[in-house]
């Protein structure tokens, strides 16, 4: 394993320990609202601190973009860690076991290393650029399905900024009509990993943040999948509008989505 990925895995496991300990006493967890339908708990913050400690000990000069504490030293290093301590916070504090720790490392703006760890299933997804994607050390690939009507599509509802809601619902209606079904599981990093290992065939969502998608996207790409924005272009990390799937599924999904833009 690449030494930087090793550090990412160590940090993700450390954070998961903090999270799973807290999950035993959810009644006592303090929850704050950042915006409408956007929450943070003291556990998000503690898990993020655990990650920062591990990364800073190994690489004190690297820059960091972390969901809860923001940007540290951006522009001062070629390396940037992109961190979501709990992706799926709303699930977490409801005791709904679908959330993950997501950590990516970019070098000169290109994501090179990725880990997404689901502590409830003990699923450790990892990828290094050019080396492949793995689930608990076994190589993973995107699904082989080619006809959209057999495909299961993951998505996320645009519940924080609801300005896209009508467009989104028109897309979802069409997706439901033309596929085997849709799933809204509530953690974008895991939605992407599920594309990578073929548990779903495709994924689309608007308005995500870099920490939701940086790690999962490399895992999809290294599993033979493609990640684009809603126009089939790059720029998804900046816009947060993202579509993912195998090359064949992605093309069909983009066609459906385009009809409603
Ligand atoms: C959220 C999850 C969810 C997505 C939201 C994200 P958070 O991340 O990834 O699936 O639909 O838009 O904000 O806030 O739980 O880290
Ligand atoms: Ca997130
Ligand atoms: Ca989060």
Textual characterization of the structure:
This protein has 261 residues and is α+β, with helices and mostly antiparallel strands. It has two domains: 3-139, Fructose-1,6-Bisphosphatase, Chain A, domain 1 (2-Layer Sandwich), CATH 3.30.540; 148-258, D-Maltodextrin-Binding Protein, domain 2 (3-Layer(aba) Sandwich). 36% of the residues lie in helices and 28% in strands. The chain is built from eight helices and 15 strands. It has helices spanning 3-23, 42-58, 89-93, 165-178, 188-196, 210-222, 236-239, 247-258, and strands at residues 31-35, 38-41, 63-66, 70-72, 79-87, 100-107, 110-118, 123-128, 132-135, 138-139, 152-155, 181-183, 202-205, 226-228, 242-245. An eight-stranded mixed beta sheet has the order 4-3-5-6-7-8-9-10, sandwiched between helices. It has a five-stranded mixed beta sheet with strand order 12-11-13-15-14, sandwiched between helices. Helix 1 packs antiparallel against helix 2 (42-58) and helix 5 (188-196) packs parallel to helix 6 (210-222). The longest helix is centred in the N-terminal third of the chain and has 21 residues, at 3-23. The protein starts with a helix and ends with a helix. The mean pLDDT is 96. It binds D-MYO-inositol-1-phosphate and calcium ion (2 copies). D-MYO-inositol-1-phosphate (IPD) is lined by residues 84, 87-90, 156, 186-188, 205, 208, 212. Residues 84, 87-90, 156, 186-188, 205, 208, 212 line the site of D-MYO-inositol-1-phosphate. Its cofactor is Mg(2+). Its EC number is 3.1.3.25. This is Inositol-1-monophosphatase. One of its GO terms (molecular function) is inositol monophosphate 1-phosphatase activity. Belongs to the inositol monophosphatase superfamily.
């Amino acid at each position: 394993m690449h030494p930087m990925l090793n550090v990412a895995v160590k940090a993700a496991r450390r954070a998961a320990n903090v999270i799973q300990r807290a999950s035993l006493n959810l009644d006592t967890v303090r929850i704050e609202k950042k915006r409408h339908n956007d929450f943070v708990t003291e556990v998000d913050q503690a898990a993020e601190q655990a990650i920062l400690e591990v990364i800073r000990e190994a690489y004190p000069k690297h820059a960091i973009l972390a969901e809860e504490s923001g940007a540290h030293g951006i522009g001062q290093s070629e390396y940037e860690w992109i961190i979501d301590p709990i992706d799926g916070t709303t699930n977490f504090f409801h005791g709904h076991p679908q959330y993950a720790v997501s950590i990516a490392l970019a070098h000169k703006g290109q994501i090179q290393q990725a880990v997404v760890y689901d502590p409830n299933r003990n699923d450790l997804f990892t990828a290094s650029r050019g080396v492949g994607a793995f689930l608990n050390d076994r190589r993973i690939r995107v699904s082989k399905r080619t006809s959209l009507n057999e495909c299961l599509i993951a998505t996320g509802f645009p519940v924080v900024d609801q300005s896209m809601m009508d467009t989104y619902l028109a897309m979802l209606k069409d997706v439901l009509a033309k596929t085997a079904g849709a799933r809204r599981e509530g953690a974008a990093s895991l939605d992407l990993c599920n594309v990578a290992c073929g548990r779903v065939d495709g994924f689309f969502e608007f308005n995500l943040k870099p920490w939701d998608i940086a790690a999962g996207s490399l895992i999809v790409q290294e599993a033979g999948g493609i990640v684009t924005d809603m126009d089939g272009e790059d720029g998804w990390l900046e816009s947060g509008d993202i579509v993912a799937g195998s090359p064949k599924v992605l093309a069909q999904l983009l066609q459906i989505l385009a009809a409603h833009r």
